[in-house]
Amino acid sequence: MATKRNYVGGEWVEATAGETYDTANPADPSETVGTYQRSDRDDAAAAVEAAAAARDDWANTPGPERGAVLRRTAQHLEENQEELTELLTREEGKTTAEAGGEVGRAIDIFYYYAEKARELGGSVKAASSPNTNLYAIRVPVGVAALITPWNYPIAIPAWKIAPALAAGCPIVHNPATVAPGVAVGIYEALDEAGVPDGVANIVTGPGSTVGDEIIGHEATDAVSFTGSGGVGEMIYEQAATEGKRVQTELGGKNPTVVSSSADVEEAAEIVAAGAFGVTGQACTACSRAIVHTDVHDDFLEAVVAEAEAIEVGPGDEFDMGPQVTESELESTLEYIEVATNEGATLETGGESLEGGHYGDGYFVEPTVFSGVENDYRIAQEEVFGPVLSVIEVADYEEALATANDVDFGLSASIVTNDHTEAERFVNEVESGVAKINAKTTGLELHVPFGGFKGSSSETWREQGDAGLDFYTIEKTIYDFY
Question: What are the b/e assignments for 19-33, b being 16+ CB within 10 Å?
Fold first, then answer.
């Protein structure tokens, strides 16, 4: 198995200290999936300096030419889609279907921003005096530091990398150490596509050193982070204090409201898909089903049946894969114990799975609690595992108040056949994404994405045109002739 190297200044290089680390298959921890550089601050600083050296030339490269690099990158990713899908499943644990969908999403993102690079320009305004051209243009903000998580290890990097490069910003990327393989695959595709030296750089290794260095380096102009709330708050404070442009996308405690008019079977399918898809390891996963008392019992029975029908096992054969690491599994099991101690009723699941085809993998049963009060920790804190809390409410007003009574505000949905109720919900719920009769997970790539409250810095959105806005800044031109 070849050791993967960092990509810095257009070259594949080893970490200066010569140290490496291995990743393991969460379905079979005895299997080593990849070996990567354990980089340090010197490696990170070298990558930022390479990006800074490339900044002016890349900024002055015409948008269509930048777009052509992204298009060729998408083509190379497409040619290796099957290999990347297999790697993602083995390193992160997603099912083959989930991994394939994520790789496809990354490819689509590169194609999308390849075309958007053609549209980068500005706006012309009428001047107050004759013989004057008055217009605004968008220019790159500069070197961008990208910090990405393990749970969507190719899609989230793609929706940061592609708009940054389209906008003319060179990048330095530190992916999560747990599952960096498919992120490295993006840079292999960029290299094949002919990205100029220094424009795209990836440095693997601990975020506490590599990430901290690329964020704090004086040549870094912008920071984009997706990950946990605690780390995100520290990054935001550091970057903002240093006068850098910063966006953070953090956690969620996402509700689905099930109204009295809902089709119970449909609602159970929607909630289960949002709660247990990708093993619940999504910032947009549904962790609270807020259910009207008139349909509560029928819904609970239906969603328990949905959970119990899920076949758990290695992602290449089963419906739901493992948690990504032993520590993530232990955290989920701790929350299950906490919920039981708080007084919630365990309806199904709640146990780790061992032996047989589970082996020593990090597997847990899809879990449903009823009798949950919204002030329980299980209803307030992000679990990041396949655990659903069912909360009974008397009416729509209580459902809305319950949905909003958390520190997060990322994604929310309602299942209802009442149009007025649906319209009220999407306007009144405190979340960056609001859906009607759909699961909380799943995003379109051409519209803005981001959260409210503790789910985001609430500064800049990602994806769509908003993704380009973060990486550009407006300059106004007065041309007197």
Answer: ebeebbbbbbeeeeb
**All structural domains of the chain with their residue ranges:** 6-250+456-480, 254-436
pLDDT digits (tens, 9 = 90+) for 197-233: 999 999 999 999 999 999 999 999 999 999 999 999 9
CATH topology for 6-250+456-480 is Aldehyde Dehydrogenase; Chain A, domain 1 (3.40.605)
Q: How far is CA 307 from the centre of its chain?
A: 24
pLDDT tens string 318-350:
999 999 999 999 999 999 999 999 999 999 999
Q: What predicted TM-score, i.e. pTM, was given to this entire model?
A: 0.96
**Terminus-to-terminus CA distance in the chain, angstroms?**
64
Task: Let me know: does 387 contact 365? Beta carbons within 8 Å.
Answer: no
Q: Which residues are catalytic?
A: 283
- Which whole-number Å values give the CA distances from 381 to 125, 228, 327, 395, 407, in the listed order? 49, 12, 17, 24, 9
Is the CATH code 3.40.50.720 the one for domain 254-436? no
Length of the chain: 481
Can you read off the two tokens belonging to residue 353?
A: 């799975």
